[in-house]
């Protein structure tokens, strides 16, 4: 299994709107080949920080989706949101066991 972890921190008190956008997301990725599931988390010690983990059967499936659909997947981001500079990170993982 291949896992992509995207993290970012909201700078302008719009974290509740971002969280609501994730709750009401249009599920565009759900039918992508190789997609397994998505989790969105926020650490209790920093509620303005968002972690999005997507689980894929393999890295190639993630890469195809990212290249073809990343822009449309961000179309429902609330207007006016600002992120803490340099807070956006993407990391990739291989699941070893569950």
Automatic annotation (TrEMBL):
All copies of domain ABM, residue ranges: 2-90
Xref: InterPro entries: ABM_dom, Dimeric_a/b-barrel, Heme-degrading_MO
UniProt xrefs under Gene3D superfamilies: 3.30.70.100
A UniProt-annotated Pfam family: ABM
UniProt protein name: ABM domain-containing protein
Organism from which the protein derives: Pontibacter saemangeumensis
């Amino acid at each position: 299994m291949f896992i992509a972890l995207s993290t970012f921190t909201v700078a302008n008190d719009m974290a509740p709107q971002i969280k609501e956008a994730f709750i009401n997301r249009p599920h565009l990725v759900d039918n992508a080949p190789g997609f397994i599931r998505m989790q969105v988390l926020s650490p209790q010690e920093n509620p303005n920080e968002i972690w999005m983990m997507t689980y894929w059967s393999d890295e190639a499936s993630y890469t195809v989706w990212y290249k073809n659909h990343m822009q449309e997947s961000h179309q429902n981001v609330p207007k006016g949101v600002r992120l803490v500079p340099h807070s956006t990170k993407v990391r990739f993982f291989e699941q070893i066991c569950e």
